[in-house]
Amino acid sequence: MQTETEAATALITNDAVVLGLLAVILGGVFWASNLAHPWVKRFFTVIPALLLCYFLPSLLTTFGVVDPETSRLYFIASRFLLPAALVLLTVSADLPAVIGLGPKALIMFATGTIGVMIGGPVALLLTSWIAPDLMGAGPEAIWRGMATVAGSWIGGSANQTALYEIYGAGPDVFSIWIAVDVVVANIWMAVVLWIAANQRRVDKLFRADTTAVDRVRDKAEAYETENARIPSLKDLIFIVAVAFGAVGLSHAIADPLSAWFGESFAWAQRLSFDSSFFWLVLIATVIGVVLSFTGARKLQGPGAAKVGSVFVYVLVATVGLNMNIGAILDSPVYFLIGGVWMLIHVALMFGMAFLIRSPSFFLGVGSMANIGGAASAPVAAAAFHPSLAPVGVLLAVVGYIIGTAAAWFTGLVMMQIAAGAG
Question: In terms of pTM, does the model score above 0.90?
Answer without folding.
Answer: no
